[in-house]
Design goal:
alpha+beta, 5 strands, two-stranded antiparallel ribbon, 2 domains, 3 helices
């Protein structure tokens, strides 16, 4: 039992140290804004959280694209590029 606890604690410390070493912790908003925004970037507040989105294209039909938890809106760049001539893409 003691060995299991010790191994678990060692794994948690190693994981935390590795995340900090590789910069996987929280980053300042200014750093993220500089790296991931462009001229089409917009921001809104949802339940006190700042949400980054883009609103591009023309047309009456709207396509809303949502990414997963550990990705960014840029996973949709290739799709947006193809659809903005016919749709409003958010």
């Amino acid at each position: 039992m003691k060995l299991t606890k010790l191994l678990l604690i060692a794994c948690m410390v190693a994981t935390s140290s590795g995340c900090a070493y590789f910069g996987l912790g929280s980053r300042p908003l200014s750093e993220l804004t500089e790296k991931y925004t462009d001229e089409s970037s917009k921001f809104t507040s949802v339940d006190g959280l700042v949400v980054h989105y883009t609103d591009e294209g023309f047309g009456d039909d709207v396509v809303l694209m949502l990414h997963g938890e550990h990705s960014s809106l840029h996973v949709w760049d290739a799709w947006v590029e193809r659809m903005v001539t016919d749709f409003r893409v958010i």
